[in-house]
Amino acid sequence: MPRQVTSVFKRFGNAIREFTIAQRTVAIIGVAVLVLGIAALSMWVTKPAFTPLFSGLSGEDANSIVEQLRTDGVEYELADGGATILVPEASVYDERIKSASAGLPTSSTGGYSLLDTMGVTSSEFQQSVTYKRALEGELAKTIGALDGVKMASVQLAIPEDSVFVSQKNDPTASVFVETQNGVTLSNDQVQAIVHLTSASIDGMTAADVAVVDSTGTVLSAVGVGATGGADQQASDYETRVRSAVQAMLDKVVGAGNATVVVAADMSYESAERVEESFTSPTEALALNESVDTETYSGTGGSAAGVLGSDTAAVADGATDGTFSSESTTRNNAVNKVTENRTIPAGAITRQTVSVAVDADAAANLNVADITSLVTSAAGIDAVRGDAVTVEVMAFDTTGAAAAAAALKAAADAAAAARFAEILRVSVITAGIVITLVVSLILYARRSRRQSRESVEIGDLTAMQNALGEATVPLSVTSSAGSLFLDNPTDTPTKIIPTVKFVPTDTDLRRAEIDSLAQSDPRSTAEFLRGLMDDRQRA
């Protein structure tokens, strides 16, 4: 190993030995954090991106696919309780093709694929049962594709057709739904499941479908429909009307100076109404017309008397008589209008609106004007018995002031907590940074001191030998014995033998400093800077 590298390692080891316990602890923590960060970064960079291979798998399908991935040597991860399998993005399509060739995943719900395996010799009962299972499987897969639905199961009760039954029962369906964690089906989603199921079976209505979730809650009952839908509809209507009236009053009297309460009565019964109206067309020809005429004419004989003593004799004579009768029957065209009207559940039968306005805000307002505005905004119908009440009264702001004070105190406390946390983190960070900076400064100063004090013996010896072997030619110019350096251009009077030059300690140190300054100017500058710092401290 080169001498310079060995010297660096020695200096580093000496600096570490001179560290205090606190400095060593900080250094160890810093090195550990650095190593862990590098390891985590390398793992994150080298980890492949995983993509779902299949989701919503059954236990059998997941086990079969995992066995195939192990055989192929492909990394995988399980999610959603084993129902989702994740593989590296580069292997997704290859593994899907291999799974499809192996018949994975298998369709546990069957669906119409059950009809493919039905033999020719199947009985009528087997055919009907298989067809019903196919319908149930297809419905279950369709319902399971809804957002928030994890798994669905459908059971159908379809009565058999028979010529010996005069009245046929309606088919019914039972739907079991398992939702994902933290998901609750809305009323619209329940209605979608009900209508989807009822529309798939001939003769089934929405009232013939029952929906139950995994918690045992009845979302829709047979003969009733979706439970909770009527209450939700009334609540939505009240909220909509209240929001409209409140928004109007906030602009008139200011926000917080009025409160609105809406109560709506709804009819939860549906009805069907048939109306027929007849009108006579103008200037229309009769459909048909018939005239019956009767005429009689002839001579009548005289009445014969009865013989007896009390009977008067009647003169004999003949009388002529006629009779005529005429009747007309005319059938005219009549306009007939038949109207079938279905009245759905949820019709508003009556609603009331109550408004309270702060007296200070309504000092210059007319109550009648406010009542008129509220009546129009809420859609009040006096025929059905709707009512509007507007009262001006003083609001109690004690609770609001206390709530505002509590909110302000909570906000101040939260801000103080955040400031304290920021201060704590800042102090800890500053302490770590200061410790590291001080450690680096101490290490740098020790390194400079060691570089100033260290002397390469080999270089000094070589320099001393070079200086010791140096000779200077001398010449005598007078009897006084004065010497001068010989000029090679002049011819000396007399050349004496060369005299060996012996350097002093000062010459050696000066030569050493010159050599170090030429070989390492940076270290020389640091050495001089250190001397100046020491003199300033002294």
From TrEMBL:
Protein name: Flagellar M-ring protein
TM region positions: 21-45, 422-444
UniProt cross-references to NCBIfam families, sorted A to Z: fliF
Record function comment: The M ring may be actively involved in energy transduction.
Family that this chain belongs to: Belongs to the FliF family.
Location of the Flagellar M-ring C-terminal domain: 249-395
Membrane-topology annotation of the record: Multi-pass membrane protein
One GO MF term attached to the UniProt entry: cytoskeletal motor activity
GO cellular component terms, semicolon-separated: bacterial-type flagellum basal body, MS ring; plasma membrane
Pfam families recorded: YscJ_FliF (PF01514), YscJ_FliF_C (PF08345)
Keywords associated with the record: Bacterial flagellum, Cell membrane, Cell projection, Cilium, Flagellum, Membrane, Transmembrane, Transmembrane helix
Organism: Cryobacterium flavum
